Amino acid sequence: MTPPVIDGAFARWLAGRAGELLLRTRAEVGFADPHALKAAGDKLSHELMRTELARWRPGDAVLSEEDKDARSVGTDRLSADRVWIVDPLDGTREFSEEGRDDWAVHVALWGRHGTSPHKLLAGAVAIPAQHRTLATDFPPAYPPMGGQPRLRLAASRSRPPAFLADLADDLGADLVPMGSAGVKIAAVVGGEVDAYVHAGGQYEWDSAAPVAVATATGLHASRIDGSALKYNETDPRLPDLVVCRKDLAPRLLAALRAHISG
Q1: How buried is residue 130: exposed, middle or buried, by Cβ count under 10 Å (0-12/13-18/19+)?
Q2: Given a cut of 60, is residue 164 above it in pLDDT?
Q3: In the chain, fewer beta carbons within 10 Å around the N or the C end?
């Protein structure tokens, strides 16, 4: 099958291909050995992405979570004009648990000559078990403005920031635990939650594709101190971020500053 030429549509196509493969892998490997299922999913999705990117975007560099040197510095991608930042399977824990659908596939394109601070040119987040893909070629509509009596903050199931419970209390917000970072940001895009705040351990591939979709939709995305998210950096660690509606950003960032300084 020949994929689309336009980068946003290509990202959607590639994320969808990997998602279909992961669904088949889940069905074939089963859930009896979670470690084996995680390993198979990571490996097969990574190999598919590497193969298709080499075939259809041979002049571009790639930063993938599953590359052996992904966390190293000084790789060839730093001099490239275009870099695909991919997470072949975001939310391996959820992927290995029968019945859970909060795992995702991330595909993003960074460009040296991009006009936005984060320089993300395209992106797609596939949520295969929910049979949907969000991408920048046709960005989702801006989420509805509130309507809930309390704010809802997406929170990590396994490692929420230590200050998040206190932040939620200050804001009068409820925490909504979810798996994959891509699923959390997709929930903000869809209006199921009002914001996603994370601090304490992520990498560029965890957020690049979801942030590309969120900003294409018109949402706010930044570090928790309000500074710009930057991708294809020497060190791919990008430990914190906040994604929310633009009308909520000043209030949320002010509350975050109080907790950071405190």
Answers
A1: middle
A2: yes
A3: N
